[in-house]
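Memo to structure team: turn this sequence into structure tokens by end of day. - J.P.
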Amino acid sequence: MREAAELAQPAPTTPVEFTPGRRGAPKHCGWCGRRLPEGGNVGRRRRYCGQSCRQRAYERRTALQRSGLPEDAVVLSDGEVAALQDRLFQLRCAAEDIVTAADDGADAGELRGLAAEIARAAKDLEQLR
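Reply from structure team:
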């Protein structure tokens, strides 16, 4: 009889540790790279900033599946390649300007302005889409 009473009692529970599930959550849109708004702790993590970015990502994935390209392939149009080359050229020219200014003995203020130009050009390059 005593054994039946012991079996009827629920087993003691162990404390459950809470670990936030949002660690490593993407902080930028998977398509355009914009910063994602901070979300709550409920539901699936956001990958895109909006419906249009999610649709463009879907279109890209399906096009890659049909073409047989690897999933991590980056496909750029001729116009996008030309724009990327232009921005890289601007970045290189800005870097050469700093080297020339340093060789000519430019003051710290001028070098700081040229460095800010490089930072701006590099930030523009981050936005590939």
